[in-house]
Write a structure and sequence with these properties.
Blueprint lengths: L2 E5 L11 H10 L4 E2 L9 H9 L5 E5 L10 H17 L3 E6 L10 H13 L2 E4 L2 H10 L3 E4 L21 E6 L8 H10 L6 E4 L5 H8 L6 E4 L5 H9 L1 E5 L11 H8 L4 E4 L2 H8 L4 E3 L2 H8 L7 H10 L2 H11 L1
Parallel strand pairs: 1-2, 1-3, 3-4, 4-5, 5-6, 7-8, 7-10, 8-9, 10-11, 11-12
Helix pairs in contact: 2-3, 3-4
Length: 329
């Protein structure tokens, strides 16, 4: 059986914080033997990857350009490149999941160098948006393919549920990060004296960002600095007229939160770029080009076709995704 090494490694708890990797590994295990390594951190991680470079036939790397350096960055970087070179020397396949056109944060010369190496040496690059795939193909020497971010329905209902009465006009959820443009969007709503009811829910590690959001809160806008369990999140999504992704900057590409929102019966709205644009073409997301257009959408009850969502979920399952990757490899 063909052996696959998947990065990041499975945590000691046996469960990833991000369900993307759990779903990916589970789907891969139906067709490949997953070669596990102990999840190490810090200076030992690149040594572990170099060891793993001798053990598998296919290497799938997610977010490897954001390698978590702790100490001796230069040494760790060269060990990581050594790992890639061992894989290539052995004639094995190196698959790079190209999640973001540009890293959301912590970009540095090592990040840029890793990306440059992979553009030149990866066996295949997979992107979850056409925009990212087009960008990568301009730089890569290997095959670059677009595959929509796979989806897992979170409830028995595989179509959007529209209740007659909604508690919120707008729900914004997920980790609170600068590229998500939350305070900027809230500031715009306040500048036009909007009376849309808005709930922002998500954990923030940036005190300044938290304060900037709190400064925009009023009788219409509220913010809860916490992480949601999926069941509560699903109830909030179904109890909101729209789920808004006011993302800004050039790093917007794929979005797991968008996929989860669709899976949980939400009515998503995002910028007219990356995966939002792709999925809008599937009839499962609304897109906007500026805040004025966004507010116009939010002022109306524009619904998504239940049939479009049902078809989208069926066609973009994790099993179909891995099958297509297997065929490409």
């Amino acid at each position: 059986m063909i052996k696959v090494h998947y990065y990041p490694a499975l945590p000691k708890s046996g469960k990833y914080a991000n369900p993307y990797s759990s779903n990916y590994r589970k789907a891969l295990s139906k067709y490949f033997k997953i070669i596990d390594t102990r999840p190490l951190k810090g200076f030992l991680l690149p040594l572990q990857l170099a060891f793993a470079a001798w053990r598998a036939d296919i290497y799938i790397f997610n977010w490897i350009e954001n390698f978590p350096y702790k100490h001796f960055r230069c040494v760790q970087y060269h060990l990581l490149i050594l790992c890639f070179r061992i894989i290539k020397m052995r004639g094995k396949k190196l698959v790079w999941m190209f999640h973001n056109i540009h890293p959301h944060a912590d970009a540095n010369k090592y990040t840029e160098s890793i990306m440059a190496y992979l553009f030149s040496n990866a066996s295949m690059i997979i992107a979850h948006s056409r925009e990212a795939a087009d960008y990568a193909q301009q730089k890569a020497v290997c095959k670059v393919i677009y595959r929509c971010h796979p989806i897992v329905p979170f409830s028995d209902s595989k179509s959007v549920e529209f209740c007659s009465k909604k508690k919120y006009d707008v729900l914004i959820w997920g980790s609170i990060l600068p590229y998500k443009g939350i305070p900027e969007f809230l500031s715009y709503l306040n500048s036009i004296h909007s009376q849309l009811s808005v709930l922002v829910v998500g954990k923030s590690k940036d005190e300044g960002l938290t304060k900037s959001i709190q400064a925009e809160c009023n009788e219409f806008i509220s913010y809860s600095d916490r992480r949601l369990e999926f069941k509560e999140l699903e109830n909030l999504i179904k109890g909101s007229r729209y789920v808004v992704f006011p993302y800004i900057g050039g790093s917007v590409s794929s979005s797991g939160a968008l996929i989860d929102t669709i899976a949980m019966g939400g009515n998503p709205v995002g910028p007219n770029k990356g995966a939002f644009k792709d999925i809008a073409e599937e009839g499962c997301c609304h897109v906007y080009n500026d805040y004025a257009e966004l507010v116009s959408i939010l002022g109306n009850d524009i619904k998504i076709s239940k049939q479009s969502v049902s078809t989208f979920i069926q066609e973009n399952s994790w099993e179909n995704f891995v099958k297509s990757i297997k065929n490409e490899l």
